[in-house]
TrEMBL record, chains A, B:
NCBIfam families: poly_P_AMP_trns. One of its GO terms (molecular function) is polyphosphate:AMP phosphotransferase activity. Keywords: Transferase. The lineage of its organism: Bacteria, Pseudomonadati, Pseudomonadota, Betaproteobacteria, Nitrosomonadales. This is Polyphosphate:AMP phosphotransferase. Pfam families: PPK2.
Length: 490, 490
């Protein structure tokens, strides 16, 4: 794979001087066009052999383009803020929004390859890592991110020559560190493993470009031209069509479904409720403050039809929590900033840190519920979302976060009763809008979307808890019970 | 995941009698429309719990639709013909062509899940298996195959009830075998593992549909409706657009490339050649007949510009082989039968069996060479082909097949000389056509395509051997040398 970058490509300095200003101008123009159109972000991943000119190239890009609309991130080893967070969390925080260019210098590839080279991970774990990367990049591409990946390569003798040259002058000796020599020692292994990584992650949607890195003139102009051509190609807006996926499940023939199978008659009297609630809140408070939970985040998700009682149930939970360690995130239509990012981005931002709890009042499931039903997302987008969501939750679970999901289920009759009540009680009136009535008309479509969602996203590590919520008291107690159970199991 | 199929769906027999004829008619109509339009094949995968009605449903489909255009394959354990062949080989043989419906009863899922349930494979191997399946299905979908996956589910008590019922009558007791009871014993494990498999392979392009299988009326109509709606949806021809991938690499700035770096001056005199050829053919003959090669297939691929000497080199190889055990496959434009299948299908057909050699005179690389340059394949198609090809070759290598690839490189000047010679010598004239002259004009484009191909598909398990072929004698000897080396290493 790397043979084509070991043949001694080079360019004269004169040629570089002649071509560099033209390339620079073209890149700048493409950058402004990107900014004006604002249709997609560019993610440039810079990786490769130590000393093959990665850093120099990143610096050049910074110099060539308008730094206000370009941001380079140099990722090292995960820091304290990344502890207990999913592996991909810090990269999500750095994703460029539409119209902007983000450069990842060091990226999801670095850790995977270096850990494997140093024997910290086995072959199977490495394979899983590459699979995770492929899925993430596929999703980013499908969301419209232009992913451009540059791999800078030099040979082992070139690496040695460079280190010796650096070491021979006082001015540059600091750059030929013991660590750099360690990379030299590991060269062959690194080359093998990188070759696997580059091959396995060179997908049609996000291919690698391998650049011979020894000659600075050749390397710089080549890197610039690849970025330029990728941007121009996308700006010109060619969109391939895909064969359409099979459509979603049709509603079951007998009209029966899992929501209808719940026991909506379940009820609690006020005295029963008061007694149980007090006991459960105490239990929850103790469980959350236990030693086992100190280093773990909790991510609780509440979904349900309008007026199902999500808000009031959440309040019964938060009363048992320490205000310093929890946040409730009400999820409405995305903001402008959020719309400039892949749809999961706004949830990645709010992934709890260790020892903290995030409660989502509505969540990423909007993609397969309201966005599906209202047609805000294409079928292609919401069909692939089930798997993307499962992967997002798996990433959280892997990093030790407890994911607990509740569907608050009410019958259409009960919803109507509550809507009417809200209209009548002055201080509740703000809670009922024309939109609620519109949504209500779509009940069968929502119901189907909910059943599909439960079927496709109820997983071992994050199962759906279906709560019959026609009786609010019963529902609150059951949610608390399930939450306490989940924490105790974890 | 399976909770939604454990709620007791059922339909009355009256309703079934009323709806079955309508469904049947609609399915038949869709089948004929599929046949007439002939734009895509339908692959129906039927899997699930033992006794949940898989076989019955397959029989029904056979009854409902026109059996001339539908074919069901029941895959059991791999048989003798599958030995030493890649795992996916037998499935490729059974893929339906455009316009037809193929039903896989037992499929790539069965082995993966059963082996894992019985502890024959570990977690990591199972994960790799699912990844392989995902990639295959993604490729099939991208090639236009409509993949519909039905999972039939029953609960453990339902399974027991069924087995007891079967056992209680002499007429049906033969169906409640020890093997079936073994499935019952393994139910919980099977359910866990299946749930993982279904979740991880429920992609946007090829989602699973889970069907509650206990009630025959509900099960049959539901399965039929899912297939019908999938077919109608695709027949109506909705095609989602995808953000465009980054474009291919631009040719290197300094005009240098790996083809130009070969030593085209290498030459052999006739006496040198004769001596070496004899020795190498003998060596090859012995090596191919060695014990180590008895159970291994060899797949040799020859690619090169027109008139590079592929044919004459292949003849020097086949002279050393036993005619019973080798085949040369000349690859030209695909036949009608081949065009009705994914592009790799015609090569899967010719994967060598153990102890046999297949020599491809041109190959699957046409996708990223002529099809790319001439625009027969879209950019989306050839960009993803690199990875698909690497995976195809990896599948062969994994099953023990030795994959050896040669690029016969000539300079444009040498090609011109040979073209002119061919024109002049009567018995060679048939070898030179207007097309050859047309291709020659595209030399720079082909050269770029070849360099990209080498960069992206030269892998550890199947590296490209680049042969400077301006001197035919030198080229033949070098090919034989490399081939003998590759066999000796293997």
């Amino acid at each position: 794979m790397f043979e084509t970058a070991e043949i001694g490509h080079k360019l004269s300095k004169e040629r570089y001087k002649r071509e560099e200003p033209k390339l620079r101008q073209a890149l700048l123009e493409a950058q402004y066009q990107l900014l004006e159109k604002g249709k997609f972000p560019v993610l440039l991943i810079v990786s490769g052999v130590e000393g093959a000119g990665k850093g120099e190239t990143v610096n050049l890009f910074n110099e060539w383009m308008d730094p206000r609309h370009l941001r380079a991130f140099a990722f090292g080893k995960p820091g304290p803020a990344d502890k207990g967070r999913p592996v991909m969390w810090r990269y999500w925080q750095a994703l460029p929004p539409k119209g902007k260019i983000g450069i990842f210098f060091g990226s999801w590839y670095t850790d995977a390859i270096v850990d494997r080279t140093r024997g910290k991970t086995g072959k199977a774990a490495f394979g899983r890592e590459l699979d995770r990367i492929r899925r993430l990049e596929r999703m980013l591409s499908a969301e419209g991110v232009l992913v451009v990946k540059l791999w800078f390569h030099i040979t082992k003798p070139q690496m040695k020559k460079r280190l010796k040259k650096l070491g021979s002058s006082k001015l540059t000796a600091w750059r030929a560190t013991a660590n750099e020599w360690k990379y030299y020692k590991d060269y062959d292994k690194f080359r093998d493993i990188s070759e696997d990584a580059v091959r396995e992650t060179s997908t049609g949607a996000a291919p690698w470009h391998v650049i011979e890195g020894y000659d600075p003139q050749y390397r710089s102009l080549t890197a610039g031209r690849i970025l330029l051509s990728a941007m121009k190609h996308r700006l010109e807006g060619e969109m391939p069509t895909l064969p359409s996926p099979a459509p979603p499940a049709t509603p079951p023939l007998d009209g029966h479904n899992i929501l209808k199978s719940l026991d909506y008659a379940a009820k609690l009297t006020r005295p029963q409720y008061d007694k149980k609630l007090d006991a459960l809140q105490a239990e929850l408070a103790y469980a959350m403050r236990s030693k086992a939970m100190r280093d773990r985040g909790v991510c609780a998700v509440f979904e349900g039809m309008d007026a199902a009682g999500k808000g009031s149930t959440i309040r019964r939970i938060t009363r048992a929590l320490d205000a310093r360690y929890y946040r409730v995130i009400p999820v409405a239509a995305p903001t402008e900033e959020e719309r400039a990012q892949p749809y999961l981005w706004r949830f990645w931002r709010n992934v709890p840190q260790p020892g903290h709890t995030t409660i989502f009042d509505r969540s990423w499931y909007g993609r397969v519920l309201v966005e599906r039903v209202e047609g805000f997302a294409t079928q292609f987008a919401w069909m692939r979302a089930y798997q993307e969501i499962n992967e997002f939750e798996a990433e959280m679970a892997e990093s030790g976060i407890l994911v607990v999901k509740f569907w608050m289920a009410v019958t259409p009759e009960e919803q109507l009763k509550r809507f009417k009540q809200r209209k009548e009680i002055a201080y509740k009136r703000y809670k009922i809008t024309a939109e609620d009535w519109r949504n209500r008309k779509q009940w069968p479509k929502y119901e189907q979307a909910v059943c599909d969602m439960i079927e496709r996203t109820s997983t071992d590590m994050a199962p759906w808890n279906l709560i019959a919520a026609n009786d609010k008291l019963h529902a609150r107690v059951e949610v608390l019970e399930r939450l306490v159970q989940a924490i105790k199991r974890a």
